[in-house]
Amino acid sequence: MSPEAPDVLEQSRERVRQAHEILGRLRLFERWQEFGSPVLVGAVACELALAPDIDVEIYCDTPRIEDGFTVLRDCAMLDEVRKARFGNHLDDADEGLYWRLDYRAADGTDWKIDMWALARDHPGPCAAQLVRPLRDALTPETRRTILELKSLMQRGAIPRCPSIDIYRAVIDGGLRSGSDLSEWVAAHPRNDLTFWQPG
User: Which among 94, 148, 167, 172 is placed 20 to 30 Å from 191, CA to CA?
Assistant: First the structure.
């Protein structure tokens, strides 16, 4: 990393702090707890966040459309919430109900908040299953490498790919250079829904 480049670790810490502030402002977990067990997942949960995205899974006895609309209705009353979306994927491979909030923070940053309501006995894969193994596998070196690759991707310096492919390439593949990322991903394909965990 060049001396003048912003520190990706500090950027990530600030993103995670902002995410938790937004979750508190929305009272999102409190609202979902009436209907299930919400779990923070994704980059914020693993402290690998650079993009303004928050991911939550909610484990329910029975995912119900009306429950999610109750949560979205209450959140949409806040001025910061600009859009709310819904998708029924119970009959698709995801086997869940999808919800999204678009939230504009005080500094003008637009945040995307993705929520999946899933059955407690969902067969997986689920993002919640990855959080602890990924956090346990990270070292200071791999954390910085992952964040630097994400930063390069955000700036358009390397082609985009899903975060899980960055995690696989760095942790399992030993990748340390963005120039080799696309080649590694192409050589190590995966299913769209993957049970991958750090090996």
Answer: 148
pLDDT tens column, 173-195: 999 989 999 999 999 999 888 99
**Number of C-alpha atoms within 13 angstroms, CB side, residue 125?**
14
pLDDT in tens, 48-90: 999 999 999 999 999 999 999 999 999 999 999 999 999 999 9
Give the number of residues written for the chain: 199
Q: How far is CA 113 from CA 45, 48, 136, 196, in A?
A: 13, 16, 25, 23
The 3-state secondary structure of the chain reads CCCCCCCHHHHHHHHHHHHHHHHHHHCHHHHHCCCCEEEEEHHHHCCCCCCCEEEEEEEECCCCHHHHHHHHHHHHCCCCEEEEEEEEECCCCCCEEEEEEEEECCCCCEEEEEEEEEECCCCCCCCHHHHHHHHHHCCHHHHHHHHHHHHHHHCCCCCCCCHHHHHHHHHHCCCCCHHHHHHHHHHCCCCCCCCCCCC
Taking the CB of residue 151, how many other CB atoms lie within 10 A of it?
Answer: 19
pTM value is 0.94
